[in-house]
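Lab meeting tomorrow. Look over both lines:
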Amino acid sequence: MELDEHVPVYIPEPEHPEYHVPSDDDIQVKDPPYADDASPTTESPRYIAELGQGLICSLGHDARTIARVADRAEDVGYVRALQASENRMMTSIEEVNLRVSYQAQIRRQESEDFYTQLHNARTDRRDIRLEIDVVRGQRTAYETELHERQRAKDDAVRQLMCIYVLEARAQIDTVEDTDNSC
């Protein structure tokens, strides 16, 4: 079993055949037409004109010279195609650069916003800590005042108790004195 029998072979056609170099069979040389009213330019031995279906005629040149001229013309077409491709690539690169610049600008702005928010958060945190310290100080003052009031109440209760005890003793003493005197 051979591989060629089972695998189809695909040979792609050239994408841009106009950019490929023609073979010597494609270039045909004709004798130039002579006209009585030919201009001096057309009578020049270096005059090259395109006739009909792309056939090139030349006065005083052989097929090799014509092939070189055709190659140069194709080279010019190829160079133009390369330049067009280069222009497209440069345009694409410029578009990418613009996108990258835009993204960098956005990231820079987001970074600035982030650091502004971070700074604000740190400032808020510092302010909140100061407020917490103030509240703690107030709480301590309130607790101290509460303890003092509680002590004052406790002292007042103790004094009232002492007064009640003294009054009770005084009443007992009065009752005893009255009982003893009778």
Remarks:
- The chain has a mean pLDDT of 75.
- The radius of gyration is 57 Å.
